[in-house]
Design a protein that fits this description.
With about 110 residues, this protein is mainly α. The protein contains six helices and no strands. The chain has two domains: about 1-55; about 55-105. The longest helix has 23 residues, at about 35-55.
Length: about 110
């Protein structure tokens, strides 16, 4: 989960420094820009790690737990990217947390 969150932060920072346009040259240039390239690598490691998680836990528990990444991405976006944290976002995050709590409680 931590790697997926780091990947998202890296993608955002990388794309902010990019001049991405809807053409193949721009897309390739963006993919191979350092921050975006590292983000893809981190996501790749995250996918491999996910295989180990699936080996140990039921999918019905592991996959819903991934929704916690939404919570951490919103919080980190507020602190690191200076994105607004609105009351609606807080309500949404609270709903996610309550939902994950009940999923784990019912297992």
């Amino acid at each position: 989960m931590t790697l997926a969150i780091a990947g998202q932060m890296l993608f955002k920072k990388g794309i902010e420094a990019s001049t991405l346009a809807p053409n193949i040259g721009s897309i390739i240039k963006t993919i191979f820009s350092p921050m975006v390239f590292i983000a893809f690598f981190v996501y790749g490691v995250s996918a491999i790690s996910w295989l180990f998680v699936l080996q140990k836990f039921p999918l019905s528990i592991a996959y819903p737990a991934l929704s916690l990444t939404y919570v951490f991405v919103v919080i980190l976006s507020f602190f690191l990217l200076k994105e607004p944290l609105t009351s609606f976002k807080v309500i949404g995050l609270t709903c996610i947390l309550i939902g994950v709590y009940f999923l784990f409680k019912s297992s």
